[in-house]
From TrEMBL:
<keyword id="KW-1133">Transmembrane helix</keyword>
<dbReference type="Pfam" id="PF03176">
    <property type="entry name" value="MMPL"/>
</dbReference>
<keyword id="KW-1003">Cell membrane</keyword>
<keyword id="KW-0472">Membrane</keyword>
<feature type="transmembrane region" description="Helical">
    <location>
        <begin position="405"/>
        <end position="424"/>
    </location>
</feature>
<feature type="transmembrane region" description="Helical">
    <location>
        <begin position="314"/>
        <end position="334"/>
    </location>
</feature>
<dbReference type="GO" id="GO:0005886">
    <property type="term" value="C:plasma membrane"/>
</dbReference>
<dbReference type="InterPro" id="IPR004869">
    <property type="entry name" value="MMPL_dom"/>
</dbReference>
<feature type="transmembrane region" description="Helical">
    <location>
        <begin position="672"/>
        <end position="694"/>
    </location>
</feature>
<feature type="transmembrane region" description="Helical">
    <location>
        <begin position="346"/>
        <end position="371"/>
    </location>
</feature>
<feature type="transmembrane region" description="Helical">
    <location>
        <begin position="219"/>
        <end position="238"/>
    </location>
</feature>
<feature type="transmembrane region" description="Helical">
    <location>
        <begin position="245"/>
        <end position="268"/>
    </location>
</feature>
<keyword id="KW-0812">Transmembrane</keyword>
<feature type="domain" description="SSD">
    <location>
        <begin position="243"/>
        <end position="368"/>
    </location>
</feature>
<feature type="transmembrane region" description="Helical">
    <location>
        <begin position="274"/>
        <end position="293"/>
    </location>
</feature>
<dbReference type="InterPro" id="IPR000731">
    <property type="entry name" value="SSD"/>
</dbReference>
<feature type="transmembrane region" description="Helical">
    <location>
        <begin position="700"/>
        <end position="727"/>
    </location>
</feature>
Length: 738
């Protein structure tokens, strides 16, 4: 007879302590609730776009150096104004009225628009591009064409057809004040919009406000939906509302703790970490359901003994599943990007704490509730007619009937998916935070198509003389094929006093505060991260190869889209490496737990397969893999291992792996299938709701994870028994036909 392991002995001691001192452990549970309740009010939310990229990465350091020397566009409200013809006096009067009123709104620091430009008049004197009184449409059209031909800055603010223009309004950086300023500008735009001109508000402050609003909505909606879905799935699976209610205490306390820990740690919840509380609650509900299913097999034991024995028998699989998921998060902790490292640390801590909380809570709740006659009756009724798993119960039988065919097919798909996944490129856009039907996204896209690209490349030059800047502009224009390159030299031209007419907020983004550097910028259409990096590399090579600029110190091409593409590309590469580490670590953990390397290798096949297929599908779609998708692939792998471990635990409880024959394997699958179907339904429905989140990164994370969970269920029920039968002959002994 096998001697109990040190882990098993520790379990017996802990559960024995709970049995003897039940009242003390109720106090421990009360303390956990108090910790959660005091941490939740301290929780804050962070929607700063730059937070996703801060870290010890060369691309970010270059970007940070440039943005520290020059004022950026992070606080620019961009207003899109459209009309049949903006050369028409009526349209220009409406535009002028809007801009005049806008500049007096609290928080607006300056206004930069086509009306800010000047033109040389007939007598050689500089005068406003739009004089007063406004001339007829034909005259205005000619004046605009003359300035557009000479000035890239106006080409970036007004369309060639003169039916659309932009006004840039830098606002104060105070977040609380920005909300009021943005609302005032939005209200003004709605009031001015009419037959003469259409006015829409966009820019990074509007984007941040929308993401912040979405975060608050998602925190409430996703956690509420997760709790309701968890209860509904449990009640349906257990065929009892009372038994379904027994699954709630542990997950709800785990949810409160996961949110409260953010508050106590002083960490803000971001769009990256938003799904952690939902994940903790769903996994806690899964553990509760597994414990309740095991409680059915405890026969006539006393309620306390039955509850503690059910927890003890499920503890190895629950803890192993938690450790594997925590390992998937732990690989993020080494990321040079702080928000990813933060996700890794908090994810690992929250999952371990929530699992221990559920085991403690279920031990206490089932010990007390199990003594009630109504609960005993519900358990007896369910035990008399236990769940069978419905049509999913046929999948293991199919796998055991054709193990060779299923295994070879799965391995072929695994190789194909992994090959495609390895070719996927990074994808990032600030608009990834917005849904495809969001009006703000439509405004950004309209700006791109009607006026000029909103994505910007930046090059800092140490020599700010007009001749050097003109050469840098020319080199970048040739390398990019764009006529929209600009610097302080092309904006002010040869006019001696033109620089003095620029608003301070605009001048500060063209010349550094100490006037030692000038910034050359290029708007470009962002199609993909790989395309942005290729264009930046081409410009860097052109500048480095220009002998006229050999003595000039020029920074590498940067800007938010370029920096983000490089950082996200590096993060995704790290995530792929981390996924391999997680796979190896999970395999090692299973090998130690099952005491068999063969079992570990066999168990990895059905868990890596869903990740490879979803990753390959993302690559095949041509969209590339974004930050949310890359995170979801690694996290979902760790979560998907949970079901496999519970199947292996059933085999272990049924006699172990040595001498495993077809009847015992089939029996283990029959016992595990109802719980697997229930927990997978919970994962799919719980994370499926995230696919409809207001925050698009959360939606992308939820959609990717949901796809993996669906495939993981099919893989565990079909591929796992097949590979055990076909690839594990040392411990699997096939029964003869008949």
């Amino acid at each position: 007879m096998r001697r109990p392991t040190s882990f098993a002995r520790a379990q017996v001691r802990v559960l024995g302590a709970i049995r003897r001192r039940l009242a003390w452990f109720w106090l421990v549970l009360a303390a956990l609730v108090l910790v959660a309740a005091t941490g939740i009010p301290r929780v804050t939310f962070d929607t700063a776009l730059i937070r996703f990229f801060e870290g010890d990465v060369a691309a970010f350091r270059t970007y940070d150096d440039v943005t520290n020397r020059f004022e950026g566009d992070a606080n620019d409200v961009v207003v899109l104004l459209e009309a049949g013809s903006l050369a028409d006096p009526a349209a220009l009067e409406a535009v002028s009225s809007f801009l005049l009123e806008a500049q007096f709104i609290d928080g607006v620091r300056a206004v930069w628009s086509p009306l800010s430009f000047e033109i040389t008049g007939p007598e050689g004197v500089r005068e406003p591009l739009v004089p007063f009184p406004i001339p007829d449409a034909e005259t205005m059209s000619a004046r605009i064409d003359a300035v557009r031909a000479e000035t890239p800055a106006l080409r970036r603010l007004m369309s060639e057809g003169k039916d659309a223009m932009l006004a840039v309004l830098p606002i104060t950086g105070n977040e609380a004040g920005q909300e009021a300023t943005l609302k005032a500008l939005t209200d003004l735009a709605a009031r001015v919009s009419g037959d003469a001109v259409s006015v829409r508000v966009a820019g990074y402050p509007a984007l941040r406000a929308r993401v912040s609003e979405g975060l608050m909505t998602d925190v409430i909606a996703l956690n509420l939906a997760g709790a309701l879905i968890g209860f509904a799935v449990a009640a349906l699976a257990l065929r009892s509302v009372r038994l379904g209610l027994l699954t709630l205490p542990g997950p709800l306390i785990a949810l409160m703790l996961s949110i409260g820990l953010f508050g106590h740690a002083g960490l803000a919840i971001t769009t990256v970490t938003l799904t952690l509380p939902v994940l903790a609650m769903i996994l806690a509900t899964i553990d509760s359901i597994h414990i309740l299913f095991e409680r059915l097999h405890q026969g006539a034991r006393t309620p306390r003994a039955a509850a503690l024995r059910a927890v003890r028998r499920m503890a190895p699989a629950c803890l192993a599943a938690t450790v594997t998921t925590a390992l998937a998060f732990a690989v993020f902790a080494a990321s040079p990007v702080e928000v990813i490292a933060e996700l890794g640390r908090m994810g690992a801590v929250i999952l371990v704490v929530s699992t221990l909380t559920v085991m403690l809570t279920q031990s206490l709740v089932l010990s007390v509730a199990g003594a009630r006659p109504s609960i005993r009756t519900a358990f007896a009724r369910l035990n008399a007619r236990p769940p069978r798993g419905g049509p999913f119960a046929r999948l293991p039988r199919l796998a055991l009937a054709r193990p060779r065919l299923v295994t070879l097919g799965a391995l072929g798909l695994l190789v194909l998916g992994a090959g495609l996944y390895g070719q996927a490129g990074p994808r990032y856009s600030p608009l990834d935070s917005l849904g495809p039907a969001d009006p703000l996204r439509a405004t950004f896209e309209r700006i791109e198509t009607a006026v000029a690209p909103i994505s910007m490349m930046q090059v800092a030059v140490t020599d700010a003389t007009p001749e050097v800047l003109a050469e840098v502009e020319r080199t970048i224009a040739e390398a990019s094929g764009s006529a929209l390159v600009q610097s302080i030299a092309s904006i002010t031209g040869e006019a001696a006093d033109a620089r003095d007419t620029l608003p301070e907020a605009i001048l500060a983004r063209l010349v550094s505060a100490d006037e030692s550097r000038a910034l050359v910028t290029l708007p470009f259409h962002y199609d993909s991260g790989a395309g942005a990096i290729a264009l930046a590399d081409n410009i860097d090579a052109a500048l480095a190869g220009n002998p006229a600029l050999a003595a000039v110190e020029i920074s590498p091409v940067t800007g938010l889209p370029v920096m983000a593409a490089r950082v996200v590309g590096g993060v995704l590469s790290d995530l792929q490496t981390g996924l391999l580490i997680a796979v190896a670590a999970v395999g090692g953990l299973i090998a130690l737990w099952a005491r068999s390397v063969v079992v570990a290798l066999v168990a990895l096949v059905p868990n890596v397969l869903p990740v490879a297929l979803i990753g390959g599908g993302l690559a095949l779609s041509g969209q590339g893999i974004g930050l949310a998708g890359g995170l979801a692939l690694t996290v979902a792998f760790g979560v998907a291992v949970d079901d496999t471990l519970h199947v292996l635990n059933r085999i272990r409880l049924g006699g172990g792996f040595r001498g495993l024959d077809r009847p015992r394997l089939g029996a283990a699958m029959s016992e595990a299938t109802p719980a697997l179907v229930t927990t997978s339904a919970l994962l799919v429905l719980g994370f499926g709701g995230s696919a409809f989140a207001a925050t698009q990164e959360v939606a992308a994370f939820g959609a990717t994870a949901t796809g993996i969970f669906v495939l993981a269920l099919l893989s565990d029920l079909l591929v796992l028994p097949a590979v055990v039968a076909f690839l594990g002959p040392r411990f699997y002994r096939a029964s003869p036909k008949g």
